[in-house]
Every structure is written in C-alpha cells, then in structure tokens.
Amino acid sequence: MDPKLLDILVCPLCKGPLLYKKAEQELICKADRLAYPIRDAIPVMLEDEARKLAPEEEV
C-alpha cells in the first residue's frame, strides 16, 4: 500500500482513521469494527464489501 494513500483514506461511514493490517490485507475501522479488504493493492472502501469484526478480534 502506498503510504500517501493510507494518509488520506478514512472510513466511508464515520470518516474516522483506518488501521492498515498488512498480513491480512485489510484496513480496519476501530469505531465501526469493520475490515475493508485490499485487493490487488486497491482498497475496496464499500460497506457491502467490508467484513464485520468479531467481538473477540483485537483491533
């Protein structure tokens, strides 16, 4: 992921910051507990494509 892109990306729902999880290839929104996938180095910032984090998953 391009660091410049990571600096400007925010959660499309709450406009909050995102945490980049390199191993999982996901961008995590702590506030909404959603994980947005990164496919072929492109973040998919759609609510329908996001994975809901399980309560036991640490962020």
Automatic annotation (TrEMBL):
Gene Ontology cellular-component annotations: cytosol
Domain of life, source organism: Bacteria
InterPro entries: Trm112-like (IPR005651)
Secretion signal span: none
Pfam hit, one: Trm112p
Family: Belongs to the UPF0434 family.
PANTHER family per record: PROTEIN PREY, MITOCHONDRIAL, ZGC:162634
Name of the protein this chain belongs to: UPF0434 protein FR698_10455
Organism of origin: Pelomicrobium methylotrophicum
